[in-house]
Amino acid sequence: MRLLIFSILICLAYAKIREISVLKSENNVLDTGFNDGKGYRPNWRDLDKRPLPEWYDRAKIGIFLHWGVYAVPSFGSEWFWMNWKTNVTKYVDFMDKNYPPNFTYQQFAPMFTAEFFDPAAWAQLFAEAGAKYLVLTSKHHEGFTLFPSKRSFSWNAVDVGPKRDLVGELSAAVRKRGLKFGVYHSLYEWFNPIYLQDKNASFETHTFVDTKLWPDLKQIIHDYKPSVIWSDGDWEAPDDYWRSTDLLAWLYNNSPVREEVVVNDRWGKDIPGHHGDFFNHADRFNPGKLLDHKWENAFTVDKVSWGYRRNMKIGEIMSDSQLLFQVVSTVSCGGNALINVGPTKEGTIIPVFQERLLFLGKWLAINGEAIYDSSPWFSQNDTVNGKVWYTCTKENYNATHPTYPPSANDKILAIYAIALEWPKDNWLTLGDITSYLHRGTYQVELLGNKGVYLTWKISNGKVAIQLPDKATVRSKVAWTLKFTLK
User: Fold this and answer.
1) Domain Alpha-L-fucosidase C-terminal: where (predicted)?
2) Can you name the CATH fold of 44-370?
3) What is the CB-side half-sphere exposure of residue 113 using CA atoms within 13 A?
4) Strands 462-466 and 456-459: what pairing?
5) Whole-angstrom Cα distance, residue 241 to residue 332?
6) Cβ(467)–Cβ(423) under 8 Å?
7) Whether residue 1 has pLDDT greater than 80
8) Alpha carbon distance 415, 383 (integer Å)
9) Nearest partner of 212 among 193, 226, 235, judged by Cα
10) pTM of the prediction?
11) Contact call for residues 186 and 233 (beta carbons, < 8 A)
């Protein structure tokens, strides 16, 4: 009898080892695609050599959507669950006042209904806003996935709540409108017991990465073929725990999106600002100066939260002018602007968010040539008039260093000066463009008033450009001067 029991235990142990072995084989955990010296090695030095896919730098404008179960309480921020469970007072009080004792966060999931979610209407809104790409939260730190994850049973939008593949529907809709589709994906999950086991083992084990994170990311990449992988939730562990370089080597070498995918810089503790196709550095990052690596300013129309919250106040929402400042200053300094709005649990984007996005789209319809396909000029923010930011367009694209100012060999097609404030006397004073106008070979026009060339006068190293009557100008907020050779 003892021999029989011992034999059964040996068989069970072998079966478990075999299960783990097969699981790792299925996930191709170490299959980076680097063979015989071809492709990118799984190390940062080699991965950093990959040229930035051109579409991303040319796009400039993206929309960010934070959508998940946190849209149900829609209070405070998308960190609702963590703030509640770590006893932040206003979250505890909110739950005590509005929900019965012993209510769990998981009970919010069936209330995440998305009954008004119309992916075609959303895609139309984003296209009319002037966006060229979209990034949707496939999974935030709560672990709930907006796609039918094979590793998130009953904690995904197909099994509970909307009963719909939200990632699949929206990706198809935005692509029909000509936009690129991308996904945000949190590496960690606050309360996933497998992740917490790895954390308690000081990240010496990789069970969560091998059995949950990699399979989810590979499923997303194979099923939806995103053009952007926007990683987050990386900061608790080093990049070797997340197997970041292995994943990126596979992504760049063997994945179905290897030619056009771009990734950000959140791949482990101390990695942001050092590695990635583009850098985020931190939320709402806008340095106000030229950087030597492609970067992105991800910011929120609701200045307090990324997810939708019912208790927002009008003063906490970006004005048209504030929105344009972020877009214009970002692009001038070589960045992309990723503009976040949080949808409701019913699947709507509230009117004030729509209004801001549509305003941006109307502005870009007039001034977009100073934004899309543009490059940084020699100067970013005018040294005489701080309300003016510059961009330019060049004949040749610099794929290796897209944020570099023009070189001596570059042919500049146009210089743009974007003024965020209209001068009271209709004379716009600038400093940094003066030497170009002094040559007498440039002509100046106001975008939206094509064919009407402006006059100017130079004095003491400054140029004063006479603008037309403001009542005749199409743009209502922020105006673009275009300088071209005669």
Assistant:
1) 380-484
2) TIM Barrel (3.20.20)
3) 4
4) antiparallel
5) 37
6) yes
7) no
8) 16
9) 193
10) 0.92
11) yes
Letter for the amino acid at 53? Answer: P
pLDDT in tens, 352-393: 999 999 999 999 999 999 999 999 999 999 999 999 999 999
Q: Give pLDDT, residue 120.
A: 98
Phi-psi region of 28 (alpha: psi -120 to 50; beta: other; left: phi over 0): left
Q: Which CATH superfamily is domain 388-485 in?
A: Golgi alpha-mannosidase II (2.60.40.1180)
Beta-bridged to residue 482, according to DSSP, are 416, 445
Does pLDDT of 13 surpass 90? Answer: no
Q: Domain residues of the chain, as ranges?
A: 44-370, 388-485
Query: Which residue in the block uniquely carries the two structure tokens 């944020």?
Result: 403
Radius of gyration (Cα) for the chain, nearest Å?
25
Q: Is the pLDDT of residue 24 over 60?
A: no
State which amino acid sits at residue 409.
N
Q: Amino acid identity, residue 148?
A: P
- Give yes or no for residue 303 having a pLDDT over 60: yes
Amino acid occupying residue 403 = T
The single-letter code of the amino acid at 475 is S
Cα of first residue to Cα of last residue in the chain, in angstroms, is: 99
